Amino acid sequence: MAGFLIPEWYKVSAPSVDDLLIASIIWGFSLAAGRVNPYIVMIWAEWTVCTAIGVISWLFLKGILLASFWVFFSLLCLWVIQIQCICGIIINRIALLMIDRRRATKIKWIVAVILGLVNISVFCIWIPARLQISETYIHVNEIWDRIEKGIFLIVDAALNFYFIYLVRTRLIANGLQKYTPLFRFNIFMVAVSMGLDVILIGSMSIGNGTIYIQFHPLVYILKLHIEMNIAELIVKVVQASSDNKYYADGTELQHSKRARGFFQDEGSGVRTGANGQPLDPFSGYRNNVEASSDGCKKQTTATGITKIVQTKVTSRRRDEYGDEDNGSESSTRNLKDAASRALPAPTVTSSLIYSASATAMFWQSSLSLGLALIAANPFCGATPTASHPPSLPTLAPVRHANTSVLSIEYYDSAPHNSKAPVAILVHGFPYSIDTYIDVVPKLVDQGYRVIVPSLRGYGTTTFLSPTTPRSAEQAALGKDIIDLMDALNIKKAIFAGYDWGTVVVNVAAALWPDRCSGMVAANSYLIQNRETAWAIAPPDALALRWYFYVFLTPQGYSSLASDTKGWANTIWNKNSIGWNFTQAQLDAASLAFLNPDYVAIATNFYQNRLLYAPGDPQYADLANQLDKQPLITVPSVTLDPIQAVVFPPTNGSATAKFFSGPRVHHEIPDCGENIPLQRPQVFADAVLEVAKLASHK
C-alpha cells in the first residue's frame, strides 16, 4: 500500500552507487570543514607526492613513459614538494615548544632558503645529467647528488636534535618528567631517520643510478610515519594523567581550571616527608619560584606546549632527614588544553582526519614498499617470474647512451679516460652484462677501459620509439655497437663476444674494420647468409638447436614470456655440459630479462635467422652485405669451448676461409658456451693476446 498522499502509480527511484559515493564524499568533506590547516596540508601533500613519484618512476622504468625533459622535470618538482613538506612538518613540531613565534618563523625561513638553493642547483645539474647532455654533467651529478642528500641528512638531523634539546630544557628540566618517554623515543627515531637517509644515498649506487628515485617514496613515507608516531605520542603524553609515577615520591599535584581567558588557582598542596612534617630547607633558606609562559594570561589559546607553575621548593640535607631529599609544591595549569590547541596533529585536530590519515599511511606504506621492491628489478613487465636478490657483485654503476634507435645501457670502467685502449665485451642469450664480472677487473688491471653494453631487449636498454620494429637481426645488433661507439666518441676498440655476442662482433668487425683494432669470438664466425638458412642439416645438429625452432611458434613465445628464468636455467644446463652454476648467478642474470622487449627480441633473433620474420627495412643494405659473408680482416683470436653443445668444438680449420687477417684459434677445455663466466681468465687472456697481434700487424 502506498504512503500518505502517494498515488498508486508512484515509482521509487533508487539512488545509484555513484549517487551514494558522491553524497558520501560531500558529507565527508562537510565534516572536515574548517579543520584544514597548514600542517594537515603538508601531511597530505607529502603523501600525494610520494605516491606520484613512485608511480611516475615506475612507469618510466617500465618503459611506458619514455625519457624526456618533462618526465625528469615533473619528478624534480614533486621532489621539491616532498623535501619542503617533510622539513615543514618537523619545524611545526619544534614550534610547539617555542614561546617566541618569531624564532620559529626564522627557522622556517632559514631552512626554506637552504633547501631552496639546493633545489635550484639540482634542477640545473640533475636534469642535464639525465638528458645526457654531456659527460661533464653526468660526472658532476654523480658527486653533487650525493652531497645534496648529505645536506638534507644534516638539516633533518639538526631539526630533530633541536626538538630533543627543547624537550629536555623546556619540559623535562621544568619538572614535566612524563615527557621523558617522548625524549627517548625521539632520540631513537632520529637514528632511524638518519639511517634512512644513509640508505637513500647508498641506493644511488644500485643499478643504473636511477633506482634510488624509487626509494624516495619508501624513505619519505617512513619519515612521515615517524612524524605521525611522534605526534601521537605527544598527544598521549599531554593527555595522560599527571599521577605520581612521573614524579618523585611525595609529590602532590593540584589542578586548576581556566576562567575568563586566564588561569586561576583552586588550591594548593604542601609536600611533606614520610614522617608527615614539612621539609626544612638547606640552612633555613626558602626559595619561591614562579615559572610562566609569557603571554598565556593574555589569550585563551596558548601558542605552544606551555606550563604555568607556581612552586615552593623546600629542601634539606640528606644527613639530617633520612626519608626525603627534596620537595616541591606545584600547580600545573591547563597544560592539556594548551597542548591540545597548539598541537595540530591529526589526533588533536580531528579524530576523523586522523583516522583518514592513519588509513592513508597504511596503504601508502604498502604501496611505497611495493614500488621500492619493484624498483630493485629495473623492469617489471614481461614476466611474472619472481627472483631472489642476487648475492653476487654486479657491474655497476651502469650508464645510458642514446643512439638514433636505442637508449643503450652499458657499464664503463673508466668513462673519463679517453686515452686508455678500449675493449667492448658483448654478452649472449640468455645472459647479461654480469657475465663479464670477473673479466673486467683483469683487463682494467692491464690499463684497459672496458665497456659492456646490454643488447637491445636486455637490462634497461630500450627503444626510443614504440613504433620501431623489435628486430634482433644480425645487421641491427652489429650496428648497435658502432652507434654506441659514436655516442661515446670512441674511434676504435677491441670487440669480444660469445654466443649472440659472437654474431655482434663478427658483424661489426667485418663491416666496420676501421673501428675494430682486434676481435675475440667464441665459435669463430657466425655471420649468416640467408640463402642457406633452410639448408639441410643432420638430425643430431638440429636436435642440439631445439629451442631455435621452439621460438618460431606461438607456444614457444608464450612459454618464454611466462618463465624467463626457467628457460635460462634449462639452456644453461643443456648448453654447457658439467657447468655447476649457482642460483645466485641465475638470479643475477634473470634481472636482465625483465625488460619489456626481452621476449620479442629473443624470439625474433631465431625467427629472423630462420626466415620466419622479416628484417627492419632501415638495415636492409647492411643485411644484403652480410649475405655475402664478408671476411674478417682485423687481427682475431677465436675460441671453441670443448663442452659447448649448440656449436660443437672444432680446430678452427672449417672457418679459416672467413679470416684474412692474423688469427689464432684455441680450444678451451672444461668450458661450455659462456666462456667469460666459466673461464674468465681465459677470456681476458684472449683479449690481451689479440691486442698483441694488433700491435705486430
TrEMBL record:
Carries keyword Transmembrane helix?
Answer: yes
**Molecular function GO labels:** hydrolase activity
Q: Where is the AB hydrolase-1 domain?
A: 424-674
Write down the SUPFAM superfamilies for this protein, in alphabetical order.
alpha/beta-Hydrolases
Outline the segment boundaries, as ranges, of region: Disordered.
313-341
Q: Tell me the superkingdom of the source.
A: Eukaryota
Q: What is this protein called?
A: Epoxide hydrolase
Transmembrane stretches, start-end: 20-36, 43-61, 67-95, 107-129, 149-167, 187-207
Upper classification of the organism = Eukaryota, Fungi, Dikarya, Ascomycota, Pezizomycotina
What keywords sit in the KW lines? Hydrolase, Membrane, Transmembrane, Transmembrane helix
Task: Provide the species name.
Answer: Purpureocillium lilacinum
Which InterPro entries would you find in this protein's record? AB_hydrolase_1, AB_hydrolase_fold, Epox_hydrolase-like
